[in-house]
User: Fold this.
Amino acid sequence: MSPSPDPALVPVPAPVPDAATVPDAVPRDPSAVTTGVMALEARNVVKSFGTVRALRGVSFEARPGQVTALVGDNGAGKSTLIKVLSGVFAPDSGEILVDGRQVQISDPQAASRLGIETVYQDLALAPDLDAAANVFLGRELRRFKVLHNQSEMRRRTAERFTELGVGMVQDLRVPVASFSGGQRQSVAIARAAMWAQHVIIMDEPTAALGVIQTAKVLDLVRTVRDRGLAVVFISHNLPQVLELADLIEVMRLGVRVARFRRGEADVDRLIAAISGAYSNEGGSR
Ligand SMILES: Nc1ncnc2c1ncn2[C@@H]1O[C@H](COP(=O)(O)OP(=O)(O)O)[C@@H](O)[C@H]1O
Ligand SMILES: [Mg+2]
Assistant:
């Protein structure tokens, strides 16, 4: 069963060429970066926690059928930005647009209705529930309208774990509190991948994963991108970002300081932007 987003807000994505095989999939015209309808957009978003100004007028754009990487040092505001975009935090000011239309994302359920699913850095799982119950939390499959259809939820969860290369199908009845960090991360990724219809946001999804699972997650990112979803990917692994991203947005001290299209950046340039030595943004718009 899938959630029922407002169909007017979640159009069927157009077929998208694979950027890896079609070098010109990302337009070369520099103005193209700021034109066209974005799947998800933030404009001048400000968010403070008491005296801490986590976001100081940040702008951000994610395009359908592309991977947008968000990079920046610890404390740059990346997680706060994606929590604003997923309805966890209300912004103090600024605009959020989905498909070019201004929206208010008042809570994570509102984000889900817009087709936006998020893998939070802190994962946000229910520790006492098993993996399948977490994947289906709030969207439980039912038998006779009331009873949870646990066997079907476990079957579908196991199927998704197999796709993700998560070797824990035998543990589906165990509360996720007893899982390793990597296993918990896989549950959160499986949940987001199961439900995202428009945008999937992943905050450091490979941080706790081993080599093989990391490769599987990167495959998953490419698969959902090729389905036409916008993928927002936060990572400190710059070679991974350079390999995966169609666009890279760099945040520093609560604002966007630089953006690069595929092929425009290298590790040195990214580090320069992250550390404040390089900028190609003219301040907040
Ligand atoms: N819930 C919160 N309460 C208070 N301060 C917060 C909270 N979340 C984030 N911050 C602060 O906001 C700033 C940005 O943090 P964060 O968005 O987590 O950065 P990043 O994800 O880029 O490392 C930091 O100074 C952090 O301490
Ligand atoms: Mg973070």
The CA atoms of residues 37 and 100 lie 6 Å apart.
